[in-house]
Amino acid sequence: MSGLKTSPSALAAPAGAPDLLEFAPVREWLAGYTNCDRARGLALALLPARDLAEVRRRLRELAEAKRLVELRGAWAAPPADDPRPWLEAARRGQRLEGGVLAKVALLLEAVERAARYWAEAAGEAPTAAAAAAWLRPARTLREALQRAVDAAGEVQDAASPELARLRGRWRLARERIRERLERMVAKGAEGDAGGEGSFVTQRDGRYVVSLRADRFDRSRGVVHDVSRSGAVVFVEPFAVLPLNNELRELAAAESEEIARVLEGLSREVEAHADDLDAGSAALAELDVLWARVRLSQAIGGTTPEVADGAAARFDLRRARHPLLWRQAGGEADGRRAGEAIVPFDLVLTSPQRVLLVSGPNMGGKTVLLKAVGLAVAMAHAGLDICAAEGSRLPFVARLFVDIGDAQSLEDHLSTFAGRLLRMDAMARGGGPEALCLLDEVGAGTDPEEGAALARALLERLAGLGAWTVATTHLGSLKGLAGERPEVVNASMEIDGERLAPLFRLRVGVPGGSYGLATARRLGLEPSVLERAERAVPDEARAVERLLAELGDALARAEEERAALEATHAELSERLARATEREGAAEAQRRESEKRRLTELGVLEAQARALLREVRREAQKAAAERDAGALRALATQVRALEKAGDAWREAAAVEDAGPGLAEVAVGMEVRHVGLDVVGRVVEGPDAQGNVVLARGTWRITCRVADLRGPARDGPAAQPPSRPARAAGARPEAAGAGPEVDVRGLAADEAVVELDRALDRAVLAGLSELRVIHGVGRGVLRDAVVRHLTGHPQVAGQRLGGVGEGGRGVTVAQLA
Predict the structure, then answer these.
(1) Rounded distance, CA 59 to CA 384, Å?
(2) pLDDT for 557-570, tens place per residue?
(3) In angstroms, rounded to a whole number, what is the distance separating the alpha carbons of residues 441 and 335?
(4) Which segments of the chain belong to CATH 3.40.50.300?
(5) Where in the chain is the domain with CATH 2.30.30?
């Protein structure tokens, strides 16, 4: 078992330290997400671990579980009841009742479901699946229990053959006695034993009839009950006495058989008690794991990285106090409601391990202190923290907390004495793996002595390398950061005009106390306030004023930085959108060019096929082909050649860029279709034509086909003609109704087949015969696979009689 409680390795802390951080309410929050009593107990007993390997194992387990929930959904919840009392009773040899056995069956069913889920998920979440190793299904026992008892705990007929036989006899005997009594009642309406209003019922497990007391003849039956008014008696007629006796005997035998069945099943449960207990414990741990996932979802949590040694650091990003998040509605409404809590960023790295936070009262210093400590406690307990992705925490083996009133009437300690004991524990137990949290350090006694004690303690903790976060109002401590490299000042930001807290942490600058300013805002008696202001040394007032001005300047600088970051983000977004649009346009251009070249290739292939046909027809006897057919073929050839020229010219014009704005005689220009340079000697005329001359030749062309003589790159090459695959038949290149791929490799045949399909579709054919031969079937299989699901193919079949049979596949074109 993974052992969530891990009491021996629990984070070492003085008594009550986690409670001072409000870790108990977090555990109760976690327990509220569990589904069974045993898991709830584990959640309430959860403690932070003080072994780094265990901390990392818990966080890795949680990260795997969150990812698993996203991929597969949640695993099944265990039954609510804790089975340990039943199992202990079974171990003592007690007989378990039907209701308990039904709950054991539910437990076994839950074990089987969970075992299947985690067996499938083990490869994706090996750490989270570790607890599932203790899930040991007992299918035979589960089926026996479900066959014997129903969900309500009633023993069923299928529990044993003898029970089924006894119940069958009992039902038959019951029907006989009811029929007998109902006949008596019917006869009684005619003056016999019954009468109007009589009915059949039961008293003390025996069937009786109701009779009017004044008509009852005691010689005919036994009275078992009398109505409250005495007017009706419930009588067992002597005639049915043997049948009632038989019924009682059968009921007794049934009870004995039920007891025997329950005893046998109880002993089976006893034999599996250890496995059932281990399975229940595993289900409880997995239920707590599910509760940890749900708590993470509720706080918008993230899994931090925890490190020790040189890699240890505090790097809390947009951190919040989880209980404040919940109070602000973060649990119910998600992140939106929780945004009301102002987040803080905190970075501490060696050697700067001591953070001294100052500022006015009610500015959020104590909340900050608790939020930092709670983040550490939650992470070490295997819970996500209420912070943004990328947050990091140092490994902490010892936690010291001095928050709130430490007085104890039982131990005869004053508040200050209690605080001194906590400070002593820090001074003695601090170290690189310790976290010390002090609220209002040095308070509770004479300010000068308190400041001296606080300074000495902070210097001691800095020297020990302990992670320390302390809050203070003592002005003399604020200079400690300039004297010790381990100490960093920080303050809680305040609106200097309204004296309202902003709850934002500002690292690097101490904060003012604003005591007199607050007193003035609250309307303190003027004479008292005036005397107090006169009593403050000029140096102290100057320091407070400088701190306020520095704070305002930093606030303005941060606002400007935020504005610059927003502008930078906006510009980056615009650049990304422009780049995306440019890429889309380029992709569209390439696709258009590819489509044009493909269509041009098809046209050229058709032209070549027709040319071959013309040549074949010319070689045939005139009797077989007349001149009219030849002229028709020649016309088709010329039409295709013109279409090909038009495609080439259109592609060349589009690639050449914009045309010339003005053309005049004497200009040197380039014809984009011919890719030659010449000089304009005539035109342009009314139709937009000019005459170009180069050397001894002249050509008439359109102005739209002309560009400047210079080219940005090498001359565009005309589209290459599609190469025919080696071994292909000459007939396969035409737009005929068949293509012959015999002798080709499978991949070559697929390429040739695609070309034939393109030609056939453009030619308007409805079918294409693919000649692949019989052989070993390799080519046929390749053709069939390629045609299946092809966008140009509506269906396919083997060739019929006269079509080539099994050596041909006929593709029906879409």
Answers:
(1) 8
(2) 667 777 787 888 88
(3) 34
(4) 316-536
(5) 657-709
